[in-house]
Amino acid sequence: MLLPYSFAGLRRSSTATATFPTLPFCRLEELLSRSLAICVLLLPAAALLLLGQKPFREFAPMEGRDSAVSLPPDYAAKTEFVLGRLMYPSAGRGRGGGGNWGGGGGGSAWLEGGTNWTVDYPKGDRFFAQAIRRLTRIDIRSVEQPVNPLDGDDIFNWPYLHVGMPSTWNLTPEYAAKVREYLNRGGFLVCDSFFGTDEWEGFKTGMDLILPGAQVEDIAPDDPMFHLLYDLKDRHQVANYRSLMRDGSGYRADGKDAHWRGIRDEKGHIVVAIAFNSDLGDSWQLADEPRYPEKYSALGLRIGVNFVVYAMTH
Questions:
Q1: Cβ(255)–Cβ(98) under 8 Å?
Q2: Cα–Cα distance measured from residue 197 to residue 193, given in angstroms and rounded to the nearest whole number
Q3: How does strand 84-86 pair with strand 270-276?
Q4: Which residues, at least 6 apart from 80, have a Cβ–Cβ distance to it below 8 Å?
Q5: What is the rounded CA–CA span in Å between residue 187 and residue 157?
Q6: How far apart are CA 94 and CA 170, in angstroms?
Q7: What Å distances lie between residue 2 and 93, 121, 167, CA to CA?
Q8: Residue 147: in which H helix or E strand, if any?
Q9: Which residues pair with 163 in a beta bridge?
Q10: Spatial separation of the C-alpha atoms in residues 141 and 50, rounded to whole Å
Q11: Residue 24: burial class (beta carbons within 10 Å; 0-12, 13-18, 19+)
């Protein structure tokens, strides 16, 4: 059975550097009161999960040198939380500008990397992990974990999975059923980096296979998702870098307005967080890029941290 990871309290670290956008301090006392009991109960569960996890593995990024980054020296360290990244098959160049920029994604090509699931990977994932380390007390691994749902039962060892550009996923019934089981067991997906009507339809086609009949809702402003660690009252669009450089818009197709959406389980907990018409991955990957405005990285980091805390506590 998949169980959530634990954490030992969260607060801003005094070691944060100018590399990271300035973010407000969390409400430590309130947060600790919520998390202390959870921490005590879940530490044994986290230890059991670590015993069954597959080792770290690395794949070619679809953006080549733009998203490549060196392997940190502590990449093999044992920690209580890891940022998982969902591997998935994708087809053609996709809808509304999405596609396999690194080559064809049909057949088994996605198993070798270089296709859409590697967007913003690994640089974005590793910068986000650094940010979590510096902005919280979460014991997080410095590198991500690519996860293939068809690789036995390994997916059940990774409670948090990031899905980049899900508008082009091309899922088989077997694949969809495994992800459905993952979510039913308590897993958490963050779907990110897709824009406009056509790309939404591509995302929805795959999600309808995973969770048939599931209702997608706009997450209410007062939902705990937006207030667990950072109070996110201003949830503007997190811009796509290529679109900013191309025409200054920050979005593709008709994806002008940001929508923060979710799918809930039968208990009312969000199990799929959806950053539609935003690009959290770019906000992490390009946080050090002078041409990428700081306001996007600041919001992308805060929303990302809240997603992680929500996944760990709900």
A1: no
A2: 13
A3: unpaired
A4: 5, 6, 7, 43, 46, 50, 138, 139, 140
A5: 9
A6: 10
A7: 34, 25, 27
A8: strand 145-147
A9: 191
A10: 12
A11: exposed
Q: Tell me the two tokens of residue 204.
A: 């929805």
Would you write out the chain's pLDDT as a tens digit for each of its 314 residues? 443 333 333 233 333 333 445 444 333 334 333 433 333 334 344 444 455 688 999 999 999 999 999 999 999 999 999 999 999 999 855 333 344 554 444 578 999 999 999 999 999 999 999 999 999 999 999 999 999 999 999 999 999 999 999 999 999 999 999 999 999 999 999 999 999 999 999 999 999 999 999 999 999 999 999 999 999 999 999 999 999 999 999 999 999 999 999 999 999 999 999 999 999 999 999 999 999 999 999 999 999 999 999 999 98
Radius of gyration of the chain (CA): 18
At 199 the three-state DSSP class reads: helix
Length reported for the chain: 314
Place of tokens 């805390």: 309
Residue type, 197: T
Task: Give the Cα separation of 177 and 280 in Å (integer).
Answer: 27
pTM score = 0.84
Give the CATH superfamily of 28-313: Domain of unknown function DUF4159 (3.40.50.12140)
Count how many Cα atoms sit within 13 Å of the Cα of residue 233 in the half-sphere of its side chain. Answer: 1
Contact 107, 91 (CB under 8 A): no
In angstroms, the first-to-last Cα distance of the chain is: 16
**Spatial CB neighbours of 177, under 8 Å, sequence gap ≥ 6:** none
DSSP 142: S
